[in-house]
Amino acid sequence: MFEMNVLWLSVRRFGKDLCGTTQIALLDKISQYSEQVEIWARGEYEPSQNWGLVSFPDDSKIGFQTKNLAKHFLLSEQDFSKFQHVLIDWPLVRYLGKKVNEFESWSLIDRSPPADKGILSKLQWRDWKFAWKKYRDSENSKLAMVVSREHEEFVKNKIGKSVDNITIVNAGVDINKFNSSNHRSMNPLKLVYHGRIDVHRGVLSLPFISHILDQKGIKHELHLIGNGNASTKVGEMIKDNESIYLHDSMTHDEISRFLQGCHIGCLPMPSDYEMWKLSSPLKLSEYLSSGLLVVGIDHTGNRFDEDLKSIYLEPKENFVKGSAEWIKSVLDDGNFAELSQLSRKFAEQNLDWNLTTTEFISRLLNQ
What we know:
The protein is of the alpha/beta class and 367 residues long. The chain has helices at residues 21-30, 65-75, 93-96, 99-102, 119-137, 149-159, 206-215, 231-237, 252-259, 274-278, 282-289, 319-333, 336-350, 353-356, 358-365, and strands at 2-14, 34-43, 52-56, 85-89, 106-109, 141-146, 166-168, 189-194, 220-225, 244-247, 264-267, 293-297, 311-314. Helix 6 (149-159) links the parallel strand 6 (141-146) and strand 7 (166-168).
């Protein structure tokens, strides 16, 4: 046990934000070595016995949420001084102001640069650059976390090559929760996408894969899980289509159970939007751990170093047609079970959170 109390200041909403799985996995791991571990965030969660969640109000309009959350942190009666190290999600750094200089040591957490578009995104880019420059120039900053090599290079190109002590933590998965079912029926074949239903995430391409499968006489269902700016458009597209289902957002537990009955996971995020090429999608790890095959657009965010036969990637221009053809070939060859086992085995050997977080935890506790 290390003599280090660790605090995480986070913008995540526990219970609502599926990306909070990263925080949960790291907190579980850190708490194995530190005396006291807390996360200050919004929402509710039943934490492990080894770390605590201090919940703050979620009462602000879009555009002011991060600023007001930081204000709640600063005005709270909680004691910062009992923590020897503070992890800070990048959107909070600007709004914490001089308080960051008072921490004994701190690390910057960047799980993604701004991923949305519009006026709000421009403001977020300002805050993202501020956070990285603050990290680069601070005497008490120790570590920074990114999700991929491409993400690290992006940071250095934008902020400067002098940014150091960056650790890559790829998206992992709880392989016990996201387990593979040996008894899933192939009739009908089930395709799934879960996450934001946004235009710039390429979700509108998925109904066209379903249309081609219909033309080929393949009995199937396409399940789209989530909400976003394309939800209404998707609803209109599938109005008369009995093969496509649009679901509201699900909890993490609900997603894990739902995936056990599916066969193909979809990654439609397009390569012409740079943020997707930097990413390490949680859903990809969850698909594979659940024994799903994967179809996606070919770019660095959707690739592993190892060429995995259960993942089919195509350039954006041929994604729809190519994915439908590949799915048909899998069915014709009758090798779904074999490919499903490859997905699960890869997840067990490479994607468990205990593996993906090891380097960061080691560097954090031995700084």
